[in-house]
Every structure is written in C-alpha cells, then in structure tokens.
Amino acid sequence: MTVDYTRAERLWLWALAAFGLIGVNGVFLWTLFFRPGTMREALANPITIAYSLEALALVAALAWLFRRWGVSRIGWGWFVLLSLLGSLAFAIPVALLFPRRER
User: Fold this and answer.
1) Dihedrals phi, psi of 99, to nearest 5 degrees
2) Cβ(74)–Cβ(45) under 8 Å?
C-alpha cells in the first residue's frame, strides 16, 4: 500500500517535523545547557521519569509498528535515533514523508 500525500499534507508534515526538531528539541537543549539545575530537578521528579519511560515505550512500539505495517523506508533503528535526536513530533512526520515504495 502506497500513501500519496497532497501538497498541503506534505507541508503540514514538514511543519510538524520542524516544530519537533527546532521547537521541542530546542527548548530541551536550551534547558540542558543554560539551566542545568532545572534539568537535574526534573530528572529527580518521579512524574518526569514516568513520562520519560512512557515516551521511550511509545518510541519502541511505533518503531515496531511502522516496520510491521511497512509505513516507511526508514528502518526501525533510524526511527529510534530520530526520536532520540529530535522528538516524536520530529520522527513520526519524517518517517511518514519517506513512504515505502511499491516493488
């Protein structure tokens, strides 16, 4: 099954990917480098740990599902790497923008 996105859909997927990489990841990196105390406090909070574990579980589940469904040319390992380097808001649109080609 090949998914053909309209021009508007591709634009919104790229916009979401940019938001995930620049916006979400930008805030994380800014906090990491310029407010390290805030990062230490967050990592000591059990709610933060619970949300982080949930996010990692979702990354693993989506990597497996995308591979199983044949949604993308991007392999599961690349999806996990994109999720860790950017965010899920970055990795999901990027994976969807590179659909698996029919043979």
Assistant:
1) -70, 155
2) no
pLDDT tens readout for residues 53-95: 999 999 999 999 999 998 899 999 999 999 999 999 999 999 9
- Report the amino acid identity of residue 40: R
What's the CA gap between 102 and 93, in Å, rounded?
20
What sign results for the dihedral spanned by CA atoms 74, 77, 78, 81? positive
Q: Which residue has the tokens 């574990």?
A: 53
Neighbouring C-beta atoms of residue 51, cutoff 10 Å:
12
Q: What is the dihedral of CA 63, 23, 52, 65, to 10 degrees?
A: -10
Alpha helices in the chain (DSSP H): 7-18, 25-34, 36-43, 46-69, 76-85, 88-97
Per residue in 29-51, pLDDT (tens digit) is 999 999 999 999 999 999 999 99
Q: What is the pTM of this model?
A: 0.88
| HSE-up of residue 92 (Cα within 13 Å, Cβ side) | 16
